[in-house]
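DM from R.C. (forwarded with permission)

"hey, sorry to bug you on a friday — could you get me a structure for this? deadline for the figure draft is monday and I only need the backbone to look sensible"
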Amino acid sequence: MLPTTAWADWDDRPGADWHPDSTPEHPCGGGAPPRGHFAREVAPASRARGLTLVVRQDGNRLCYVADEIAEAPVIRTRPGDQLVLTLRNEITDPAGIAAFVAVGQLDQPNPAVPERAGFTPVVPGARHTASGATNLHVHGFAVPPIVPQDEVMMTCADPASGPATCGRREVTYRYDIPANMPPGLYWYHPHVHGEAQAQMLMGLSGAIVVEGPDDAARRAAGIQDRIFVVRQSQDNDAASVQPAAAVPAAVPTSHKPHRPPYRPPTELAAKLGGRVDTQDELACGTGPIDEITLNGAPVLEGIPSDADLATVPMASGSRQLWRFVNAATDAFLNLALVDANGRALPIEVVARDGAPIADDAGQRRPLTTTEPQLVPPAGRIEFLVPAPVNGKAYLLSRAVDTGCSGDRVPERRLALVKTVPTAAPAASGAHPSVAEHGPAAAPDLFTGLLARPTDRVRVIAMAEYPRPGSDDQTDFYIAERRPGTSFRPFSMSAPPAIEVHANATEEWELENWTNELHAFHIHQLHFRVIEIDGKRVAEPQLLDVITVPAATIAGTGSAGTSHTGGVADVTKADPGRVVPGRVRIKLAFPASLAGDILFHCHLVDHEDNGMMGIVRVLPATATERPMRKAEASPGPFDGAPICRAQTP
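My reply, with the result:
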């Protein structure tokens, strides 16, 4: 339950001195936008040369500047369009990026993990030194990982001052959006390995809306579209909160996370052997509270006054479509709508991760619920909100237990929803199924995924090493469990971890052997979630990022140390009693997306520090496997942030 009053610091009164113009004195503008602000929207297809995004630096801030406005615009495009984005790097102080990262940098590898008979060997890694190079990833786009599209391993732009690793200051991307890519909410951010977290914390991210027929139907019906981007700020200290009397709590829901008391290894995992060591992992600790912003304005801890909340007005009797991007580097959201007394109100979820809520055949299945909606880092959710009958409601993010070594994510209020009386009709008389959900869904790139036969099943393990401790200076690992595997932090010079043939369909069982939640993401693809912790999912969702539960200890049903619960630290348990959190997904690899596809944890410090791998999709007509420059010449690229860019 939240304390009643949140005290506002000097930077918690945004808007008063805000100006978004980029000037020589203030490259990223001045101040923070007011609460309730929404970013401007642009349609690059209407411009002869597309849209140019200039990355500028102002001390410990980075920003995307478009048309000399220092605010990442919401980009609107459509299936079948070619989206042209030019990225220019004007970062002036790469050392400022390195100094910004909260976790201390290591110039040498961590101490080795002691080898133990019967356990998967662990190879420590070293930290990356910030270069100031940057690039662009269009998260969720089903476009090939090749130049000049969504290639993030070798494509980059050099800073105005600093190393010239990339060989150029400007990159033009040309994304050919497939006509059958699901329309919905996507986003863009940098993906330079080793400093993606720093650049995102300093401000680099923005939303993309791929519009479809349902957008046109809602627009014709007068249903307003709101875009919310949640980012994580550079200040991770908890805000000052004044203790106060208790306030009405939300009515509890019946939903509880599924925590089986014990589940033996799957048949495949048991055959693989090579147990995963948990006694040398990051132990339980007290992480910081993740501070977040909503559309650039700080979100206060505790229960702010209505005046300190983003206010979203709604006409009486109307509905709005709210689209949320969780662009935080590692903060989870758990969204819920409540009335002034804390009682849960229904929302209608129409899309997740850019894909409409639909069954495997493409039939729409919108979900009306009062349950909180967990949105991991990089996740997106789109839902319809009705104007509050009683005049106002609150959008909350419920507390999230991320595990005993995860960051603390408290409950907080994000916005005030306020009904505004109006004499005009709230919306047209269009039929609700057309006005709100759009016409019947057409088959898309991922339709029929569940019906396809599975060619192979893999077990993918996620782990953290090399030592117990509360300091998050650790190495992160993701690897397929198979004979001869060792855990190694991702290296730019490493060969692909997995190779598949184009048009293959696989099931991956994701195992989390750690004391904290992870957010698994794979580029280019969406997948169906078919099982969580041994429980089959009744209606598998189509996602591109999924929360993988923390490990448990057999007989306790507990996932690490809850920030409000008892101790169940897997680093102190008999390895035979540790049960990994498990998620099973089904995914296919279309020939149109052949190339090197990245998969990783989207807690971005985990990604930067090793929890990433490559699956190489071999072209259907390939006579020999393709080779990346870094793989062909491993020596010079070991530990490097990026490789010399290829020319589009």
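R.C.: lifesaver. The chain has a mean pLDDT of 83.
me: no worries. The first strand starts at residue 5 and ends at 6.
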